Amino acid sequence: MGTISLEHSDRLYWLGRYTERFFTTIKALGRQFDKMLGTKQGYTDYLDCFGLADTYSSSMEFFRSFLFDNNNPNSAAYSLERAYDNGIVLREEISTDALSFLQMAKDTLDKAEKSDNIRLALLPLEDILYGFWGCINEHIFDDEIRNIIYIGKTAERVDLYVRMKYPYDLVKKEFTRLLKNLNRVPKNTPFRYNTRYLSDLVIAIGTEDEYKQSKAIAIESLKHLFEKPEVVA
Fold first, then answer.
1. 40/86 Cα distance (integer angstroms)
2. Inter-residue contact 13 to 149 (CB < 8 Å)
């Protein structure tokens, strides 16, 4: 349709990114919780994926920060809060039902923080997020709105998968989804990707050998994928 403002497009994009960041962070930390607990190496490996310094005195302090600390910009709680903030503004576009799933996720995360069994208390979050995406598909009739959200979702997933050194087959699968979503963007929409960085990304993830050697290029390209091209005087 091409009638969505740049500001609104940006909010839709970041709704997708932050919701996926929350989802993937919860899953990654959940899988590693028992493995990392009591061992310093487990969580420092995770920090290394994101270039973060170890400022934690124990694995449990790390987990609590990365799960529940709203002041930690790399935490699940921070991502969920930012997703909810965008969802509030976009309530008319995404439906109150979809927004209610984000609120449910916030409530569940709050309960998990107070639980004696954090791992068990986090389990409902995966189904809650699937419910959110189901509402996005059910209630959004404007394909452009839905597609921008999914561009954010897939861009974030590719970024996190690359950083966390997921197998090439999984990264390639998600990157293919991202390309399909990008190809659906109407030419007259104000929300356009930067072809230079997309070209770099295509090369960096083109083959398994390139993926192994060019992860830094892939991450940098994703970071700048929606920057406006430089104007040459």
1. 35
2. yes
Cα 164 versus chain centre, distance: 13
**Confidence (pTM):** 0.92
For residues 140 and 96, what is the distance between their CA atoms, to the nearest angstrom?
11
Do residues 142 and 185 touch, judged by C-beta distance below 8 A? no
Helix (H, G, I), strand (E, B) or coil at 57: coil
Q: How far apart are CA 185 and CA 154, in angstroms?
A: 14
The number of beta carbons lying within 10 Å of the beta carbon of residue 55 is: 9
54 in helix, strand or coil? Answer: coil
Residue 169 three-state SS: helix
pLDDT bin (cut points 50, 70, 90) of residue 67 is very high
65, containing H or E segment: helix 59-68
Write down the domain spans for the chain: 6-141, 168-233
What is the tens place of the pLDDT at every residue in 126-136? 999 999 999 99
